[in-house]
Amino acid sequence: MNPNRRHLLQMAGAAAAATVWPTRAQGKPMFDTINMFVPAAPGGGWDGTARAIERAAKAAGLVGQMQFENVGGAGGMVGLPRFVNQRKGQGNSLMVGGSVMVGAALANKSPVTMKDVTPIARLTEEAGVVVVPANGKIKTWKELMEALKANPKAVSVAGGSAGGTDHLILGLMVKAMGRNPREAAYVAFAGGGPANAAIIGGQVVAGISGYSEFEEQIKAGRMIALATSGSRRTPGVNLPTMSELGLDVVMANWRGVFGAPGINAAQREGLINFMTAVVKSSAWQKELETRKWTDVFMTEQPFVRELASDLAKTEAVMKDLGLV
Questions:
Q1: Within-domain flag for 28
Q2: What's the gap between Cα 95 and its chain centre?
Q3: 285: which strand partners?
Q4: Alpha-carbon torsion 214, 217, 219, 222, what sign?
């Protein structure tokens, strides 16, 4: 063979190998389209996470467009079967999920769980914050604790779906005060929007959720933030932890993304590479800072192991609440 022709063929082969989908070649996005599935109503934490991924990915030139579908209800248990059944084998589909879904699957005795999707990456962790409406009768942590200790059933608390992190935090609070966690008067909502409305409208005594879901209302003076559930104070948020205030409760809400069932190894790797690039982008780092999210990025087997551990811990708390 002509040496020059052999050299050209070798160069062509190398170029082809360097552009295997879905790597980012010559400034092109890694994916033309990502179909993002959010198993919750708009306005909540999962929806906020999905929109933050979109902003960061587009700013970094990693994706052409992102298409969204929101299906709320039962802590993700309404949407999860839809994602599993309709997106099987789709290598450009992602679903946002998190610790709430672990508890919701147990509470609803769902035949479809996180075990039926493909773990891609754990992204963030957010401590819960306890709030009360600014126009409510209770305005301090001490007043809330006294009311809960006297009669937990009389202190209605709004949060996400039953069995989710917000619910578990309330159960731990009641237990730490020496009362039966099953006395907790938890009011579950499908998304952050309805929960916010219930708290501000005085339909409940208090609320628990991630700080980012209540931040706007707190800053506007419509809610009073009392304490967080983290092991340490949330950066940029001048709020004590429950532990600092003498209540031995520590729990945080993690969020991540999952691929569809039935995707092959190359498709899974493509999604992991995409999310790794998103997390490394300056736009994503800005999202973390703005939303007071803690970066707990993790992929592959470490993420799978964490999922198993979270399931065991969640089940133990839910047994105390009488939910399983």
A1: no
A2: 11
A3: none
A4: negative
C-alpha to C-alpha distance for 80 and 73, rounded to whole angstroms: 10
Residues 267 and 120 grouped into a single domain: yes
Question: Distance between CA atoms of 94 and 257, rounded to whole angstroms?
Answer: 6
Host domain of residue 151:
126-252
Do both 218 and 310 map to the same domain? no
- pLDDT tens digits along 249-284: 999 889 999 999 999 999 999 999 999 999 999 999
Q: How many CB atoms lie within 10 A of CB 34?
A: 23
Radius of gyration of the chain (CA): 22
d(CA 209, CA 132): 12
My answer on whether 242 and 261 are in the same domain is no
- Which element (helix H / strand E) includes 304? helix 300-321
The domain boundary residue, chosen from 223, 252, 281: 252
239 — phi, psi (to 5°)?
A: -135, 140
Last residue of a domain, one of 236, 252, 268: 252
96 and 205 in a single domain? The answer is: no
How big is the CA angle at 288 (ends 38 and 141), to the nearest 5 degrees?
A: 90
The answer to whether residues 161 and 74 touch, using CB atoms and an 8 Å cutoff, is yes
pTM > 0.85: yes or no: no
